[in-house]
Amino acid sequence: MDHYSATNFRLTQSIGFLLTKARNLLSAEVDAGLKELDISSQQMGILLSLQRGIAATPFELSRLLGIDTGLMTRMLDKLEARGLLGRSRSVEDRRVVNLRLTTAGETMAARIPEIVPPVLNARLRNFSESEFEELKRLLTKFVGDE
């Protein structure tokens, strides 16, 4: 089923526009909340993914977080320079770089769950529990991760 046509398409009512606006609002709010840690929401994604074992290489992080490899490399460089993560070559395949959090990185990652939930809850304050679950379900369906 086609939901858009040349006659009914309106930029500010399109899913792409609304998703981008929502993402930008949320990123700015999370970034403001993370200011005390001096990290961005994208860097938060890296730290938490490594901490929780969801990803262990730059490629896995790029794919998981939807960040191009060039930007990923720059962010990893910054986090490494700050002493939050380390890189090492895989013994099995020298082309693969494995990432690990340092003690400082683990400490920082452990602080994120204290900071971000209140920011998210403030944005979601007008959603009922069922609306919240439906939003998550629909977004999961939209991105194809069902």
Number of domains: 1
Could you say which structural class the secondary elements and strand pairing correspond to? mainly alpha
Please identify, by name, the CATH architecture: Orthogonal Bundle
**Could you describe the largest sheet, including whether it forms a barrel?**
2 strands, antiparallel
Q: What is the multimeric organization of the chains shown?
A: single chain
Principal-axis shape equals: globular
- Radius of gyration over all CA atoms, rounded: 18 Å
CATH superfamily: Winged helix-like DNA-binding domain superfamily/Winged helix DNA-binding domain
| CATH class designation | Mainly Alpha
Low-confidence stretches: none
Q: What's the arrangement of strands in the largest beta sheet?
A: 1-2
Instruction: State the order of secondary-structure elements, H for helix, E for strand.
Output: HHHHEEHH
Number of helices: 6
Strand segment count: 2
What is the third-level CATH name, the topology? Arc Repressor Mutant, subunit A
Distance between termini? 20 Å
Mean pLDDT: 94
Instruction: Estimate percent helicity.
Output: 55-70%
Strand content: 5-15%
Keywords: DNA-binding, Transcription, Transcription regulation
Organism: Pandoraea terrigena
Domain HTH marR-type: 12-144
Protein name: MFS transporter
